[in-house]
Write a structure and sequence with these properties.
heterodimer, A: mainly alpha, Fumarate Reductase Cytochrome B subunit, 3-stranded antiparallel sheet, 3 strands, B: mainly alpha, 19 helices
Chain lengths: 299, 358
């Protein structure tokens, strides 16, 4: 556990120019490393394959929708759709396994502390519960804004939602792919249930990522229009202090802040990442609209 | 040779002498003409004088009005009528669609008499194709199903196209299928007087009949079964079979008759039915090569909305929906409130100032 309260005021210089979540080209700003290159690549593989899965899965789910049929026909019919869906699924599975391998290595080989417990862990703790309540109170003006550690509760939720989603969607997907084999272990009704589970959980994932995750992480006023840290791996001193004050203070008090200092992201890389990121968000928002049309158009 | 008003009154004697009436002399038919010059208004030729049987049949048919349907409207030029097995005849099997089509593809007549556009869809059908492209004399032309002189409305119980007569009519050529159909539930129901049960044309249509293995037919026919079997169709639509089947013309996924059979449909309780428990591995195995005893426990018509019939599926769906809407509900509210608050903070601090956190 890190510290007690979300009520501690941040000590920020009043004259700091406001950074809207993007690295400003002011030149004199310090950059801190938040994500490693491997983590950034993992996120890129994750969202690319997820977009592919959503784009090819939605037409199957809402196959009586004209847009779905148009898309299916354009990519080469149902056979092509299912092939691409399975291809993206395998890519995502490999990314998931890589992540598990990475975690296992950090736990077993490097004996890294803080994976399961403590301020840098993804595991939810009591402070997260208090942060949810505190944050909600702050939304409606009933209390001060909570300060966050390395991973805020909604970021942890994002992580575990994806983790759980991959297990559920992945298992049900492979169970359909290899149904006669899985039928050896699963009861009869489960063969029917896996399609329901696969479809509903995928719907949840699509709706959540393309609306809640997009707004929470990228489109909210503090980060608008996109939080570049997952692409560049780095954020400015000001962003760091503002968004995760507790981690900043903890590192500062432990004298570890300087070790986190990184190079300012290269100009072309930031622009490249923006193109990729905005494309992903645009595709996601289009799919969100089509999903809502498909869902409520059928209901 | 032309008459005063410009009509040709000449007759091709050579052609006439090869026609079916070639051995007759002119006055055998033109009985009112005795000498020359002819009467100003010769009496119309009466075919009925010789063809009483056909005339009687016509008189009782849907084409009864003689003025609108003179014999020549189907048999063509009176001086060039040939036997129906002569390729020059207007009623030669390969010529019949065009002959009937003279009226039955005419939009003016169609509007006047409320005729359906059957000619063009027939010509595109498997029968029309067989006649027009393959020249198959045995392929069904209009006459094969409707008869010739004695054509009746399909509403007339004596008509070969009356619902209960259709299996026999089609069975004239499709004897094997008729036997299968008669043994199946639909055939028995129709024979037992249940007019709601389908006959051949209810599934295959009457005129635009497609080759049943064609993609178009596979795509169009499932809703046809569904038009009666609404509940079964609805649960089928929930399945992967249907979802994929609808997409991009993907025709390989199971349609109704892939599992139930097409003509000899039997209840699941019948040991000969492809959906009898004992036959499921074989039936599912036609597509799913590795189908095994537990695989065929899959219910192709399970209903996740029916708690009594499919409790496990019902609660699975219930749980998934609960998860979906509670997560989305909470976070929608959370994110909306956050967004509004963050916007207000931004407004308070102004464009250049620092947002005060608390």
């Amino acid at each position: 556990m890190t510290d007690e309260t979300g009520a501690r005021p941040t000590q920020q210089p009043e004259n700091q120019p406001q950074a809207q979540g993007q690295p400003q080209a002011s030149g004199n700003e310090k950059y801190y490393v938040r994500f490693t290159l491997a983590q950034r690549y993992l996120h890129a593989v994750l969202f690319t394959s997820f977009l592919g899965l959503a784009a090819t899965g939605l037409p199957m789910r809402f196959s009586d929708n004209p847009a779905a049929r148009f898309f299916a026909r354009e990519v080469g019919g149902f056979g092509a759709i299912l092939f691409l869906h399975k291809f993206c699924a395998v890519v995502l599975t490999l990314a998931f396994l890589y992540h598990l391998k990475d975690l296992a290595g950090r736990v077993l080989v490097h004996k890294e502390k803080g994976i399961f417990w403590g301020p840098t862990s993804m595991v939810p703790n009591w402070k997260d519960v208090k942060d949810i309540v505190g944050h909600l109170r702050w939304f409606v003006g009933l209390g001060p804004k909570p300060q966050f550690e390395r991973y805020a509760y909604w970021e942890k939720f994002d992580y575990w939602a994806v983790f759980w989603g991959m297990l559920v969607i992945g298992f049900s997907g492979y169970a359909m792919w290899f149904a006669p084999f899985f039928a050896k272990f699963l009861p009869g009704w489960a063969l029917n249930a896996i399609l329901v589970v696969h479809g509903e959980e995928a719907l949840l994932a699509i709706l959540f990522i393309f609306s809640i995750h997009f707004v929470n992480t990228h489109l909210r006023p503090d980060s608008f229009p996109m939080d570049m840290v997952i692409f560049t791996g780095k954020e400015t001193d000001e962003e760091f202090r503002k968004k995760r004050a507790l981690e900043y203070q903890r590192l500062a008090s432990e004298g570890k802040l300087e070790a986190k200092v990184g190079e300012k992201p290269v100009y072309w890389w930031v622009n490249f990442a923006k193109v990729i990121g905005f494309t992903a968000i645009l595709i996601g928002l289009i799919l969100l609209v089509l999903t809502l049309i498909g869902y409520f158009g059928n209901a | 040779m032309q008459d005063a008003s410009g009509h040709s009154v000449g007759v091709d004697a050579d052609l006439f002498h090869t026609s079916i009436h070639g051995s007759l002399s002119c006055t055998d038919c033109h009985t009112s003409i005795k000498d020359y010059p002819h009467p100003e208004k010769p009496v119309a030729v009466k075919c009925v004088a010789c063809h009483a049987e056909q005339a009687a049949a016509i008189a009782g048919s849907i084409h009864a009005s003689a003025s609108a349907h003179p014999c020549t409207s189907c048999h063509g030029d009176a001086h060039a009528i040939f036997p129906k097995d002569d390729a020059r005849s207007a009623v030669y099997p390969l010529n019949i669609p065009r002959t009937c089509g003279n009226c039955h593809s005419d939009p003016v007549l169609a509007k006047k008499y409320g005729l359906q556009n059957v000619y063009s869809v027939y010509m595109d059908s498997i029968h029309g194709y067989a006649v027009s492209k393959e020249g198959l004399l045995v392929a069904a032309n209009c006459m094969s199903c409707h008869g010739s002189h004695n054509i009746l409305s399909h509403k007339d119980p004596k008509s070969p196209t009356y619902k209960t007569n259709i299996p026999n009519t089609c069975g004239t050529c499709h004897g094997g299928v008729m036997a299968e159909y008669s043994a199946g539930v639909h055939g028995k129901a129709v024979a037992g007087g249940n007019l709601a049960a389908p006959v051949c044309s209810d599934c295959h249509t009457a005129h635009s009949i497609l080759q049943p293995t064609l993609a178009d037919f596979r795509m169009q026919s499932t809703p046809i079964c569904g038009s009666c079997h609404k509940g079964r169709f609805a649960t089928y639509q929930d399945t992967f079979h249907s979802q994929l089947g609808l997409l991009g013309g993907y025709v390989q996924t199971a349609r109704c008759w892939d599992c139930h059979g097409a003509h000899e449909i039997l209840p699941a309780s019948d040991p000969a039915s492809p959906i009898n428990k004992a036959n499921l591995i074989k039936t599912c195995g036609r597509c799913h090569a590795d189908a095994n005893a537990s695989f065929v426990q899959y219910q192709p018509h399970a209903n996740p909305r029916n708690r009594k019939l499919n409790p496990a599926l019902y609660f699975t769906r219930f749980f998934m929906n609960l998860l979906l809407w509670s997560v989305l509900g909470f976070f929608s509210l959370h994110t909306l409130l956050w967004f509004i608050r963050a916007k207000r903070e931004q407004g308070k601090s102004g464009p250049t100032g620092e947002a005060k956190d608390d």
